[in-house]
Write a structure and sequence with these properties.
Number of strands: 10
Helix content: 40-55%
Number of helices: 14
Strand order of the largest sheet: 7-6-8-5-9
Order of helices and strands: HEHEHEHHEEHHEHEHEHEEHHHH
Strand content: 5-15%
Length: about 300
């Protein structure tokens, strides 16, 4: 009987052990090939659109996706990525360089990307995929009428005429190192006629209503194209490039290498002009980011 008992029990133990191993291998931990890919984003229009693009592209590639969009600002998104709350999200090279790695500004795109790519992998085991050509850098913009009136094409031109100009922008631009203090340090210690600190959503209304001559802008703001604004050339190269790219947990990417193919296919499609148009569909025409993202990827043959 004891011999028979051993004959029956041993195969059962083997099956149980195999079952446990399979369960562990396919469990829900971050990085598992069968776990949902958790896609996050920060808390503004462009981040919603691109985050949704990433989610849709991954679903098209056969992945199960969990959306965790609208997380908050950069520190929140970075913490979520490091903790495994999310597996990836769209980030900007300039933000990675200045805000996360605390490195000095660099104007060369490839140098910035190489720096953040190496730094993130070494410090955080995070991987930057291919960056888009778009550059959502900080900028200054004017209406064509005002730019022609004052003869301004560059930030140097603006600095020379600063005493005649009213600038509008968010309150923090007056104190940020890459705001007015940084511009003054690079372009000369000029004084504006006035700086109007307003909520970011009111910048373009103030400009187009004639209440200001210059506005603080970002390179892919939808209003730039919609209102045919002139973006002043950063002729002394103060602002670093802000190209967008997916940042992915190394563990997740190693378990799911096809993530790179799915997301890298999007990158070359995202130019300044394209993102300005897509952003305005949301901010100006009040469409849903998910709808705009799906329509664009469909038109491009990516989903």
């Amino acid at each position: 009987m004891k011999k028979l008992h051993r004959i029956l029990v041993l195969p059962l133990l083997a099956l149980l052990t195999a079952g446990i191993l399979i369960a562990c291998a396919s469990g829900g931990g971050t990085g598992s090939a069968s776990a949902p890919i958790k896609v996050g984003s920060k808390d503004f229009t462009e981040a919603f659109i691109i985050g949704e693009m990433y989610a849709l592209a991954l679903e098209k590639a056969g992945f199960q996706v969990e959306r965790k969009l609208n997380l908050g600002g950069t520190p929140v998104a970075q913490a979520a990525l490091q903790s495994g709350e999310i597996d990836l999200y769209p980030e900007y090279t300039g933000t990675g360089l200045l805000t996360i790695l605390k490195e000095p500004a660099i104007s060369d795109r490839q140098q910035v990307f190489d720096k953040v790519s190496a730094g993130y992998k070494e410090k955080y085991s995070l991987i930057w995929l291919e960056p888009a050509p778009m550059n959502n850098t900080q900028a200054l913009a004017m209406t064509q009428e005002k730019a022609n009136q004052f003869g301004i094409k560059t930030i140097s031109d603006m600095a020379a005429k600063a005493g005649e100009l009213v600038m509008v922008g968010p309150p923090e631009f007056e104190v940020r190192e890459d705001g007015l203090p940084g511009i003054k340090a690079k372009y000369g210690n000029f004084e504006l006629k006035e700086y109007k600190a307003v909520d970011p959503g009111l910048r373009y209304k103030a400009l187009t209503d004639g209440e200001a001559d210059v506005t603080v802008a970002f390179g892919t703001d939808g209003e730039i194209a919609a209102f045919k604004l002139v973006v002043l050339e950063d002729d002394k190269q103060l602002f670093p490039p802000y190209q967008v790219a997916p940042v992915v947990r190394q563990q997740t990417l190693e378990a799911n290498p096809k993530i790179a193919d799915a997301l890298n296919a999007i990158a070359p499609k995202l130019t300044d002009a394209t993102m300005q148009k897509l952003n305005y569909e949301v901010s100006g025409n009040k469409r849903e980011p998910a709808e705009v993202a799906k329509e664009f990827l469909t038109q491009e043959g990516l989903i």
